[in-house]
């Protein structure tokens, strides 16, 4: 009778441990997904931003070139 009680207790403890492990794994997976969503990098969005910044840089560079040419022309006129 003692052996059967011990065997039953061990079986119940194993079942509880398995359930706890499963719940813990689900919690871990959910937390990992939340972290990935917060810190993840969207490559399409980054490529679009890169193109936008490159175009802005080129436009700014052209403005500076025109300003320099205008300033040089004014200095030669004086």
Plain-language structure description:
This protein folds into 2 domains: 1-40; 42-78. By secondary structure, it is mostly helical. The protein is 94% helix and 0% strand. The model has no long low-confidence stretch (mean pLDDT 89). The protein has helices at residues 2-39, 43-77.
Query: What's the helix-strand series?
Result: HH
Helix content: over 70%
- Percentage of residues in strands: under 5%
Low-confidence stretches: none
Q: What value does the Rg take, in angstroms?
A: 34 Å
Query: In DSSP terms, counting alpha (H) and pi (I) runs of 4 or more, how many helices?
Result: 2
Find the count of extended strands (DSSP E, 2+ residues). 0
Structural class: mainly alpha
The coarse overall form would be rod-shaped
Summed up:
Helices cover 94% and strands 0% of the residues. It is an all-alpha fold.
Write the layout of secondary structure elements.
Layout: H1 2-39, H2 43-77
Keywords:
Flg_bb/hook_C_dom, mainly alpha, 94% helix, rod-shaped, 2 helices, 2 domains, 0% strand, 78 residues
């Amino acid at each position: 009778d003692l052996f059967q009680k011990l065997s039953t207790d061990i079986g119940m403890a194993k079942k509880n441990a398995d359930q706890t492990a499963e719940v813990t794994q689900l919690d871990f997976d959910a937390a990992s997904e939340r972290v990935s969503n917060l810190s993840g990098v969207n490559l399409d969005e980054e490529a679009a931003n890169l193109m936008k910044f490159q175009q802005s840089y080129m436009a700014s560079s052209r403005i500076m070139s025109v300003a320099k040419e205008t300033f040089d022309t004014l200095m030669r006129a004086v």
